[in-house]
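Appendix C reproduces, verbatim, an entry submitted by the partner laboratory led by Prof. M.T., so that reviewers can inspect both the input and the predicted structure.
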Amino acid sequence: MTTVDQNAISIEDNEIRFLKPGRQITLNGVAQGYISDRVADLLKANGVEHVLVNLGEMVTIDDERRG
């Protein structure tokens, strides 16, 4: 996989495209981070005070550190 930074992507109203051929991107980190945050929020809301949630992205409950 080729590394892509924000300068190699064009984002317009209805289109996202790479400025150079052969580039690719995955959004799994976004999904993993979102669900890890939601699980941590659910556990905290139900009284859990100390936990490490690792569903591809890590979230801790204990000192309010996330990520």
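The chain has a mean pLDDT of 81. Additional entries are available on request from the coordinating office.
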